[in-house]
Design brief:
Peptidase S1 domain-containing protein, 5 helices, 6-stranded antiparallel barrel, protease, TRYPSIN_HIS, 7-stranded antiparallel beta sheet, 13% helix, alpha+beta, Thrombin, subunit H, globular, serine protease
Length: 301
């Protein structure tokens, strides 16, 4: 399978590979489409990230989770229904993949959260949506690119900024030197649209003031209740300081995750174009609609 290459351009303002500090044990109903993504690289290093199932055999995560130091990961272990990283549980569905693709927009060398998306193609279809409590595909805000004649029904800025939203993952729970959390944790967040120069960013900040994402939460899904349904809004791209970005200060003296007040989100409303492009290239675009029909069609969840 061909793959897009890019030169990882993250500035020193961000901690890539970004458990959740001052979070709480994840609610299983809120994380039915969450997957863990553990990648192994040629140099022997491994990355722990989150991800989300968006099609029967398609997982989405952050691009920098599968590409590091100018190399793609050799393998990605994707586990649906994962709770404890250190042990296998009965309800887990584990997949090992060598097929990964990333947004070609990274080729331009610009570090944009909405470009930090990757697809991991699973070797077989996951068993999903068998009941209201079984693993499922994430409910997407829209699959608008499949039908260009219709206006997409996507969350508005008002909806995003006034909805109950949360992030779940296995990232570090203390600081950059701590171990990754063995159990999946989540934090409630408030979303906002912030402008830095000419660019707008979708950002998340913990409702509990001390809550933070940290190393290992990259690629983790961001969900909101939209029209009463748990809806995927995007994935964690990186963490950073809005103040430092606003000042265009390139210093890298912030050593602890607690110093980074915002989580920068790869916003589905923007990043879906990148995802559609990848899936269309490999003939898998229809999986998005198929997955939504399987799990959320008439009479479903």
């Amino acid at each position: 399978m061909n793959i897009f290459l890019f030169l990882l351009p993250f500035s020193a303002l961000f901690l890539s590979g970004s458990s959740i500090i001052d979070g709480f044990p994840a609610n299983s109903f809120d994380t039915l489409s969450l997957v863990s993504v553990i990648t192994r690289f040629p140099n022997g290093n491994t990355n722990v990230c989150g991800g989300v199932l968006i099609g029967p055999s398609i997982a989405m995560t952050a691009a920098h989770c599968v590409f590091s130091n100018d190399e793609f990961a050799l393998t990605a272990k994707v586990t649906l229904g994962d709770v404890y990283l250190s042990k296998q549980e009965d309800r887990e569905q584990e997949f090992r993949s060598h097929a990964m693709a990333i947004s070609k927009q990274f080729l331009n060398g610009v570090s944009e959260a909405n470009d930090d998306v990757a697809i991991v193609f699973l070797p077989k279809r996951a068993d999903v949506c068998e009941s209201s409590i079984s693993p499922q595909i994430a409910k997407l805000p829209s699959t608008w690119s499949l039908n260009f004649k219709e206006t997409p029904s996507i969350p508005s800025q008002f909806q995003l900024e006034n909805s109950v939203c949360w992030i779940a993952g296995w990232g570090k729970t203390e600081n950059t030197t701590a171990s990754h959390s063995d159990t999946v944790r989540q934090m409630t967040v408030k979303l906002s649209i912030r402008r830095i120069g000419r660019r707008k960013y979708l950002m998340a900040r913990g409702v509990l003031g001390t809550s933070r994402t940290c190393m290992g939460d990259s690629g983790s899904p961001v969900y909101c209740f939209i029209d009463g349904k748990r809806t995927l809004i995007g994935t964690v791209a990186h963490i950073g300081s809005f103040v430092k970005m606003s000042q265009q200060d390139p210093s890298n003296h912030l050593q602890f995750c607690r110093d980074f007040e915002y989580t920068f989100i790869s916003d589905w409303r923007e990043s879906s174009e990148r995802i559609m492009e990848i899936l269309e290239k490999y003939g898998e675009l229809e999986q998005l609609n198929e997955g939504q029909d399987m799990c959320f069609g008439s009479g479903k969840l």
